[in-house]
Amino acid sequence: MYRTLLALPIAVLLSAGLAACGGDDGGGDDGDQTVTVYAAASLTKAFEQLKDDFEADHEGVTVDLELGGSSDLVTQLVEGADGDVFASADEANMTKLTDADLQADDPQLFASNTLEIAVPPDNPAGVQSFEDLAGPDVDLVVCAPEVPCGAATQSMAELVGVTLDPVSEADSVTDVIGQVVAGQADAGVVYRTDVIAAGDDVTGVEFPQAQEVVNRYPIVALDDAADPELAQEFVDLVLSEEGQQVLADAGFGAP
Amino acid sequence: MARQRTTGLPAWVFVPALLGVVVVVLPLAGIVSRVDWGQFWPLVTSESSRQALLLSLRTSSVSTALCLLLGVPMAVVLARSQGRWLGVLRSLVLLPLVLPPVVGGLALLYTFGRRGLVGESLEAWGVDIAYTTIAVVLAQTFVSLPFLVVSLEGALRTAGRRYEVVASTLGASPTTVLRRITVPMVLPGLLSGAVLAFARALGEFGATVTFAGSKEGVTRTLPTEIYLQRVEDPDAAVALALVLVVVAIVVIGVARPGRGSL
């Protein structure tokens, strides 16, 4: 009894400590390898497909997808997280990684994404264009300027020449689409791929200026990858014709 | 009453106890070590920080007042009545205590949101709380109410009914008993409950961001501002986080469990 009581907090501490030092496995042994891919959340659907394809082609290899906001992911990598591949939703966050000199090679662009307006299926505020978003009766939700989708939205507003007055500035594009799906917001500015991923829950409103502000997605294998060859092979798959088709199906444009 | 001597404690107990202290204190040291002291003051007094802090203080105060208004009667009813359904009712009321805040936010969204259970009728009446400060107060009240109810109900049960029974046999009306006997008797418990509720409201993040949104000066409270700044301006996030840590320490100093009635 006493021993168990004593062991518990120590076990907690040890496992926490081990988790912090661990993660360096995967390389070396045949047939039991892991490729850890840090990928922007907007790539979720496409990369899950590519993970399956990659695992089918490489027996005994598991692809571990770490999905999240690009800025969060790059912070984790720079702070020492063990990853093999990094796929960012914008070039600014990739620059943070290359500034820390973590790349194995020069990053390569593999996809692009444009902005689109998401509205609830019944489009309560009757939004038909980007200019309509500035209307006084539109409850608009956008990303905060601090995150990539917010920065893109801001450039778009300047380009179109309107001043947006959003009711809320979310800190991720998922929050924006969530508010539209719930019918809480009349409109949200998100990426084209988010509208496709949300299916019937939202309707996309395209606008002609969308092509003027393009987000480009770079990918790179990391210098301290457990198995550099395998990491590069995953990058190659993304850049291959097969990978490009998967991305196109998810709504991404060519790089 | 003689004080009990605490000689029976085995020495090894101090080892895990100390480890426990380390688990709690070390992360605090971690955040303090990241504070950029030279920039600390400008960072916490920048326009967006000030707005967030003021909004947090305002909404948390209103939420605490609402908790008192609704929570004191709730605690009295739970502590002083009997009935089969009381246990079920208590469990329901305490639910926000164990519910992940994000779930609470979704629940509020589908209740008071524009397409929600109640929100739809409210909107027809011209009441639209979506993206307003009222939504923040609602989220904070939802998560902090159980804190007040739990600590006050405990205080009421410990205090017992003796004086209430005497007062009422002497002819005091139920209202007089509640006002003059019950509430004054549990005042320390009431105070610590209110402080806990205030602290919980101040730290509220998940339900607020899910339900109320995030807009400077309207719905962006201090925790939401910290979450937003953590990537682009980590120095600002850390400075603001330290402000919340200091507030939390002050709160614990005021509402330390074991003081007062508990």
TrEMBL record, chain A:
Secretion signal span: 1-19
PROSITE patterns in the cross-refs: PROKAR_LIPOPROTEIN
Family: Belongs to the bacterial solute-binding protein ModA family.
Pfam families: SBP_bac_11
Keywords: Metal-binding, Signal
Listed InterPro entries: ModA, ModA/WtpA
Protein name in UniProt: Molybdate ABC transporter substrate-binding protein
Lineage, broadest ranks: Bacteria, Bacillati, Actinomycetota, Actinomycetes, Propionibacteriales
Native source species: Nocardioides marinquilinus
Keyword set includes Nucleotide-binding: no
Automatic annotation (TrEMBL), chain B:
Positions of the ABC transmembrane type-1 domain: 53-255
Name under which the protein is recorded: Molybdenum transport system permease
Coiled coil: none
Pfam families recorded: BPD_transp_1
InterPro entries: MetI-like (IPR000515), MetI-like_sf (IPR035906), ModB_ABC (IPR011867), NifC_ABC_porter (IPR006469)
Location in or out of the cell: Cell membrane
Topological category with respect to the lipid bilayer: Multi-pass membrane protein
Superkingdom of the source species: Bacteria
Family, similarity comment: Belongs to the binding-protein-dependent transport system permease family. CysTW subfamily.
SUPFAM superfamilies found in the cross-reference section: MetI-like (SSF161098)
PROSITE patterns in the cross-refs: ABC_TM1
The species this protein was found in: Nocardioides marinquilinus
TM region positions: 12-32, 52-79, 91-110, 130-156, 177-199, 236-255
Role summary: Part of the binding-protein-dependent transport system for molybdenum; probably responsible for the translocation of the substrate across the membrane.
UniProt entry keywords in alphabetical sequence: Cell membrane, Membrane, Molybdenum, Transmembrane, Transmembrane helix, Transport
